[in-house]
């Protein structure tokens, strides 16, 4: 897409798009299903027009919500230390921090690894359902905005790194076996990344705006 300089006065704002990387302003290309628009200056992907976005995203949100419970409440690891066996879950980690006097850290871990990821998924679910059932688009717009703010606070990736580091460190000290919870946690993370890629913000914003 390379076009002559834009005469901004004659173009409606809704017909324009700016590149996220280099801020180049250009006329919004009309894409067919499966096509991808790239910035002519820096080559950044502007957006992708995917087919069946709502249906595919709904399937992924439901899968993520189903994984959420075992990821947080099934044992991430089983620890045998000096004859004592303990099963550690994300939730028991939060409670453990709380009981050992680190209430502030317990609250942060609870918010970033449990509460906010769940809220994010519920926002995404509500947005998708409002599009699919054609109801409450205004609320959908509000929730989708809220979702974009929450994105910065859900830190499952950081939490997973923490788990992996502690697994490596504890492996020398104790008899350690990994649990189903960890598999669900990793699956939840992968499904969420897949969902982020599938649920193209450009298409979701446009659909919400059309129906509002
Ligand atoms: Zn660019």
Automatic annotation (TrEMBL):
Main location: membrane
The keyword Transmembrane is assigned to this record: yes
Transmembrane spans: 58-77, 105-131, 152-170, 176-195
UniProt keyword Cell wall biogenesis/degradation present: no
Keywords associated with the record: Cell inner membrane, Cell membrane, Membrane, Transmembrane, Transmembrane helix
Name this protein carries in UniProt: Paraquat-inducible protein A
GO cellular component: plasma membrane
Subcellular location: Cell inner membrane
Lineage, uppermost ranks: Bacteria, Pseudomonadati, Pseudomonadota, Gammaproteobacteria, Pseudomonadales
């Amino acid at each position: 897409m390379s076009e002559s300089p834009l005469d901004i006065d004659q173009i409606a704002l809704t017909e324009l798009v700016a590149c996220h990387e280099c801020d180049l302003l250009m006329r919004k290309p009309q894409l067919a299903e499966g096509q991808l628009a790239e910035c002519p200056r820096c080559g950044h992907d502007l957006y992708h027009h995917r087919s069946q976005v709502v249906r595919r995203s709904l399937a992924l949100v439901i899968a993520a919500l189903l994984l959420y419970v075992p990821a947080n409440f099934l044992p991430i690891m089983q620890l045998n230390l000096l004859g004592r066996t303990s099963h550690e879950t994300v939730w028991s980690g939060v409670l453990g921090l709380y009981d050992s006097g680190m209430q502030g850290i317990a609250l942060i871990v609870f918010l970033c690894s449990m509460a906010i990821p769940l809220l994010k998924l519920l926002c995404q679910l509500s947005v998708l359902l409002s599009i699919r059932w054609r109801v409450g688009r205004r609320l959908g717009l509000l929730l989708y905005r809220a979702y974009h703010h929450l994105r910065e606070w859900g830190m499952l990736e950081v939490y997973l790194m923490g788990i992996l580091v502690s697994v490596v460190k504890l492996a020398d000290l104790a008899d350690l076996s990994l649990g189903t919870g960890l598999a669900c946690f990793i699956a939840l993370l992968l499904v969420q990344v897949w969902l982020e890629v599938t649920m193209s913000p450009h298409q979701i914003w446009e659909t919400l705006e059309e129906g509002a």
